[in-house]
TrEMBL record:
Listed name of the protein: FeFe hydrogenase maturase subunit HydE
Pfam entry (one): Radical_SAM
SMART domains noted in UniProt: Elp3
KW Iron-sulfur (keyword) present: yes
Key words, A-Z: Iron, Iron-sulfur, Metal-binding, S-adenosyl-L-methionine
Domain Radical SAM core: from-to ranges: 49-283
GO molecular function: iron-sulfur cluster binding; metal ion binding; transferase activity
Iron-sulfur among keywords: yes
NCBIfam families registered for this protein in UniProt: rSAM_HydE
Amino acid sequence: HDQTHQRTAPVLSHISAAQMKHLLDTTDVRETAALFAYADAVSAAYFDNRIFFRGIVEFSNVCQKNCGYCGIRRATKLHRYTMPKHEILDCARFCMERGYGTIMLQSGELNTPQRIDWLVDLIGEIKQTTKQMDTKHPEAPKGLCVALSVGELDELDYRRLFEAGASRYLLRIETSNPTLYAQLHPPDHLWQRRVECLRALKRVGFQLGTGVMIGLPGQTTDDLVSDLHFFRDIDADMIGMGPYVYQEGTPVGDAHKKLRERAGQTEQDKMEQNARMVDLTTRMYALARLFLGAVNIPATTALQALDPVGRETALQRGANILMPIVTPTQFRKEYQLYEDKPCIDEGAAECSACLAGRVKWAGKELALGEWGDPPHFHQAS
Ligand code: SAM
Ligand code: SF4
């Protein structure tokens, strides 16, 4: 849909695992600055310093799974909501009016025939409603691009959602290390099943998003290097990576907390730890940009939980996407995946204005009214 997929940039697809590991670990300030600058140059070559938006609607916190780190896991005592369709359609209109180009529908996992039917109808209505809307951006594709992040489903269901009009799907592998995955999830959550879902999504024709959490308890630098290879091998078009953030009341969070208490962690230690996490996460963005080239890389919301300007920093180190939260304010408190999740008290309009300011601050430009397909997807097809 845009010219960017014709471009080439000096990607480093031949970079070795040892070099990646070195760049993740190095304390050499000049080497680190060079890594970030190179990643920014590759992003600029592909995207002209433009930042694309996806409005994210966290439409339901109902979840049948029990991932060990997540604040909305089934075992959490929480008021469970599913937004009514008409409110989600209001969010879609809002995204269209703001020129966001894409709506990302995210929820807990609920793999029932009723939920799939409901989603199929919803996607159709979003496409129909937004296609009829005028846009200030005459060259924009008609209607919103619909992206989904609703977990592990059967291939036939993925196909129905694709045929209903959804174009993109985000399913993080969480970690490419199956042993670590097993430590963070109950025994019936299978790493292999997640890989099979990713393959099914690709077969169906979705633009494929995957990713990992960074800084998971027990994760090593070697794991992160393997993550980058996993993204290449699965042929991902979008890489959604964010720091793991502690959430009270979860098994992984509570075990982690005990260790920190035993070590006598102070507020100062916590701040330093947060800064290290932002640094490590953005090194992963930079390496993903260098290694994988023209994929989309969102500056994830979780970064801002650790650093007020974490997302802007990411935009200067390889990220090219921002995902303003469009979820109505009354639901945000009930979609708290982790501690200090930002923008809990804001509304969609405030988020929009705030993020536009942040893009300018980072020295980038807003790309409004475009879907912002990852050039990688078109190169591959
Ligand atoms: N339920 C779907 C799934 O799991 O794929 C989509 C929604 S889920 C809330 C989206 C992502 O939130 C997960 O893939 C996970 O990486 C992230 N997440 C959950 N708990 C987190 C935490 N404590 N810190 C950082 N990210 C977290
Ligand atoms: Fe549910 Fe997704 Fe949270 Fe796992 S990460 S508990 S599937 S919402």
